[in-house]
Design brief:
Blueprint lengths: L13 H20 L7 E8 L2 E3 L8 E11 L4 E10 L6 E15 L17 H23 L16 H4 L1 E6 L13 H20 L2 E7 L2 E3 L8 E11 L4 E10 L9 E13 L21 H4 L5
Antiparallel strand pairs: 1-5, 1-8, 2-5, 2-7, 3-4, 4-5, 6-9, 7-11, 8-11, 9-10, 10-11
Helix pairs in contact: 1-4
Length: 306
């Protein structure tokens, strides 16, 4: 990990870790989906389950990312990814992240066609049954999340400190070739890194301290984002406890100029951050003041945070 991977306190950005996790998941999924006799394809990220940041990673440490396919349905792949950091001076190792990701294979000839996934062999019948249950649960949650994705973040004039409007932030990004897969769509890891960056700005504005990612709730990828699109990543505070902050982040995409499609909601997620002192100890979080129209919708406020 290099200095440009971390914040001013030397902690590696959560978005950098998320990007590495997604790259590992994409590689193993694409490799598996092309192991059969079907047509060539590329695995596209559909969802990331809750990801906990178990331990901070620092500048100078080496990240070891391992991935394993744990379930396949007809058109999707579940991948478990573990991240371990290693201090190459002392040899000390620690697990920093564990995540579960879901991918769907898209044909190289027709990007709108989802191809079939080669099955895997399970050591026990129970493993397949448990995987099928997880598949049905995430499928239902993705549908419910997409149905409530109508919110937008409006600017607030002269917002008061510690209100939603005071810390809310947005980032506009032009999707270039280096952001995309072979199919010309944005890498899920690139999107997640930008989302974490916006969430971090929201948290830092609210606390005025060093902040780090503590966890990420399910990240749902509702629609593909094409090369050349302009994406707007927006974040707002939705909940604070004594020691943590929950931030809603969503990505809206404006397609090509010549395309008839209007702006659409592409990705949504909730990030949890904690505030740290210079010594790395958790600090109390200023309580969120909910005022007027800048307040999030009740569905977000009811979620709470750890």
């Amino acid at each position: 990990m290099r200095p440009d991977d971390a914040n001013v306190a030397g902690n590696v950005h959560g978005g950098t870790v998320l990007k590495m996790i997604e790259e590992a998941g994409a590689i193993i999924s694409t490799r598996h989906c092309n192991s059969g006799t079907g047509e060539p394809c590329v695995a596209a990220l559909a969802r990331v389950e809750r990801t906990d940041f178990l331990s901070p990673m620092c500048i100078g440490e080496v990240a070891n990312v391992s991935a394993e396919i744990t379930y396949t349905s007809k058109h999707s792949v579940e991948v478990q990814v573990n991240v371990m950091s290693e201090n190459i001076l002392t040899g000390a190792k620690k697990v920093t992240n564990k995540a579960t990701l879901w991918y769907v294979p898209l044909s190289l000839k027709n990007v709108n066609k989802v191809v079939e996934v080669p099955p895997i062999q399970y050591a026990r019948k129970e493993q397949e049954d448990e995987g099928r249950k997880r598949y049905e649960e995430q499928k239902l949650d993705r549908l419910e999340t997409k149905q409530r994705n109508g919110d937008v973040i409006m600017p607030v004039i002269n917002p008061e400190p510690h209100t939603v409007g005071y810390s809310q932030s947005s980032l506009i990004h032009l999707v270039g070739p280096s952001d995309c897969t072979l199919l010309g769509f944005v890498h899920g890891g690139v999107t997640m890194k930008l989302m974490d960056e916006v969430a971090g700005i929201v948290a830092a504005r609210h606390c005025k301290t060093n902040i780090v990612t503590a966890s990420v709730d399910a990240i749902n990828f509702h629609e593909k984002i094409k090369k050349g699109s302009v994406i707007t990543i927006s974040g707002r505070m939705t909940f604070t406890s004594n020691k943590s902050m929950e931030i809603e982040v969503f990505v809206d995409a404006d397609p090509f100029v010549d395309e008839p499609q209007e702006r659409y909601r592409a990705v949504s997620a909730f990030f949890t951050y904690v505030s740290l002192s210079k010594e790395g100890k958790t600090l109390p979080v200023p309580q969120l003041l909910v005022l007027g129209s800048a307040a999030p919708q009740p569905a977000s406020m009811d979620r709470g945070a750890p």
